Input
Amino acid sequence: MPPALFAIAITWLAVLAAALLVMTLRARSLASRILALDTLTLVLVGALVVFADARNAVHYLDAALAVALLSFIATLAAARYLGDGEMLS
Amino acid sequence: MSAAADALVVLGLAVMTGAVVGMARLPDIGVRIHAASKAVGLGVIPLLLAAILHGDGPIVARAVLILVFLGLTTTVGAHAIARAVWRRGRRRPEVGRRADAPPP
Output
């Protein structure tokens, strides 16, 4: 990957992540906040994948998989708290 | 091959931009679940495909693993959020109502 494209991709993903962070902080309801946080972690996964592609290193993809797993579990737990009132029934 | 991978990266970034813009500007939580789950899921997939095109054995294996995992879990996460919103009682969508219709 040419370094110009890598720089543009990482900068643009950082801009998207900042926009999603602002959306998380300004969300009007808990469901919107959970959704924005889930999307923010997926943008982070995308940034890690771009790093792995540019540096041809495999450990970034391990980190991306871990972040994806954690975000999925956190979204499920938060959605369960939102819907049922408690998380570990 | 490298040009195709670069084009895939640009495509993935464009789809993720559409997802974030959709999340910001769509009025209702249900429609925003659409934007967040589908568009971000479909936006990360071209990035992973670019990594698969570029890389060798371990990278391809892990990228396929992340692909399968994201394909399975974004749907379940979106459904969990939608079900939680449903159980909280938000059952009337803000979109799709005529402007001159009486409020519910």
